[in-house]
Amino acid sequence: GAVVSQHPSRVICKSGTSVKIECRSLDFQATTMFWYRQFPKQSLMLMATSNEGSKATYEQGVEKDKFLINHASLTLSTLTVTSAHPEDSSFYICSAPSRLGGELFFGEGSRLTVL
Amino acid sequence: QKEVEQDPGPLSVPEGAIVSLNCTYSNSAFQYFMWYRQYSRKGPELLMYTYSSGNKEDGRFTAQVDKSSKYISLFIRDSQPSDSATYLCAMSDSGAGSYQLTFGKGTKLSVIP
Asked: Measuring CA to CA, how many Å separate B18 from each of B13, B15, B105?
């Protein structure tokens, strides 16, 4: 079946540094991918919609200059957390639809800890 | 009032028990309802998907939607330790194709052998 892969699964970084998280669709093409953030005991919150070949669409309250999204190919979207701070520590999850209108598949998530 | 309310638990049941998980919502425009299972430190995986009111059964899992009460449920029969996970409800007003899902906080379930 369709699989979405995320890397790294866990990352620890110092405050002020930037971290890149990759999201790949392994056996299907995804012109659209979604990035979520999940704090402990909280809902998944949609951060942004990544669009292949064009700018990402950010949800209200999400700083686009802080969370840089690049969707350079039909199988890869990246989320870069710039100048990370401890409050950015969270579980970041990407997802992609297997086809237009199809099931939404989630990656395994990336746990970011900013010291 | 939050759009989707879900009791975070934790909920602990003995193996073989029937589990009932619920969500309430306030947006009457929601028509598509989903249940996801999320194991610890993993991404969510789709369990059940229903449209509008009614019941849907898949093996040990039954999803119910009552739009008049804005209430959805997931029942797990003959629960197994492998069912231990966090269960998230999600809903949309524009269909799975739009992917504008609103999630509940998730209910953490532990099935004790």
From this structure: 8, 9, 21
A12-16: Cβ within 8 A, 24+ apart: A12/A112, A12/A113, A12/A114, A12/A115, A13/A84, A13/A112, A13/A113, A13/A114, A13/A115, A14/A114, A14/A115, A15/A84, A15/A85, A15/A86, A15/A114, A15/A115, A16/A83, A16/A84, A16/A85
Task: Show residues of chain B in contact with A95, CB under 8 Å.
Answer: 43, 99
- The CA distance from B45 to the nearest CA of chain A, in Å, is 7
Summarised one tens digit per residue, pLDDT across range A11-65 is: 999 999 999 999 999 988 888 999 999 988 788 899 999 998 889 999 999 999 9
Dig out the tokens for A55 from the structure: 């700018």
> Chain A closest CA to B100's CA: distance in Å?
8
